[in-house]
Design goal:
Elements lengths: L1 H90 L25 H4 L27 H23 L4 H31 L3 H5 L8
Helix pairs in contact: 3-4
Length: 221
């Protein structure tokens, strides 16, 4: 009986040993398989990452080339724009040229003592400024006589002053221009009064028809 029990124990021990050996072999094989699988997975992950990095690098290179082209275009446009204003400034005329009025020459007029007293004080009076659309002088004003040349000179000066005032008023209104306009208006008024005095003198000095016929003092029969 004891021998049978001992045999059974030995058999169970041997079976247990076999089982333990078989389990160790299985665990080693499974660990080897799991390690190989992990390596494959890591390699696949690294390959995917490498592809992604390559794609990112290509896209960045494309963006860099595009930016370089844009920089070149912008530099060319800036050069063209900087060269164009220089040409425009050379071709553009002056916008507000300075208006220089003609020089005034004031002539003294001899006044006849037989004239009315208001004629001598007429140049000191300020008459209203004549309108720019003043009619041209009549042929009576330009007739032959001692004051014809002076009348023509006064008319030319008046026309020149009117043109100067028109060009000055069309320009930019500034303080200096306003002062010059006021001086021109005063001089125009003085010249207008002188013109009236000369016209009055010319009218008074014109010979009448009756005086020309009986100028010798002998009446006609």
């Amino acid at each position: 009986m004891l021998r049978d029990i001992v045999k059974r124990k030995d058999e169970t021990i041997s079976e247990l040993l076999r089982d333990s050996q078989s389990k160790s072999i299985k665990t080693e094989s499974t660990s080897r398989e799991s390690d190989e699988h992990l390596q494959y997975r890591e390699v696949a992950i690294l390959r995917r990452k490498n592809k992604r990095l390559q794609l990112d690098l290509k896209s960045k290179q494309q963006t860099i080339t595009g930016l370089l082209k844009l920089v070149e275009r912008l530099s060319q446009q800036a050069d063209a724009e900087t060269s164009a204003p220089e040409e425009d400034t050379q071709d553009e005329p002056e916008i507000n040229p300075k208006v220089v009025g003609p020089k005034l020459q004031v002539t003294q007029v001899a006044v006849d003592p037989n004239d009315p007293p208001g004629a001598a004080d007429a140049p000191s009076m300020q008459a209203p400024c004549p309108s720019p659309l003043e009619p041209a002088p009549t042929p009576v004003m330009q007739q032959e006589g001692p004051f014809a040349g002076e009348l023509g000179a006064l008319v030319e000066k008046l026309q020149a002053l009117q043109e100067a005032t028109l060009s000055a008023t069309q320009g930019v209104a500034a303080l200096g221009h306003l002062a010059s306009n006021a001086a021109l208006k005063r001089e125009l008024a003085v010249l207008e009064e002188k013109k009236r005095v000369v016209q009055h003198l010319a009218h008074t000095l014109e010979p009448d028809g009756s005086d020309s016929e009986e100028g010798d003092g002998f009446p006609l029969r």
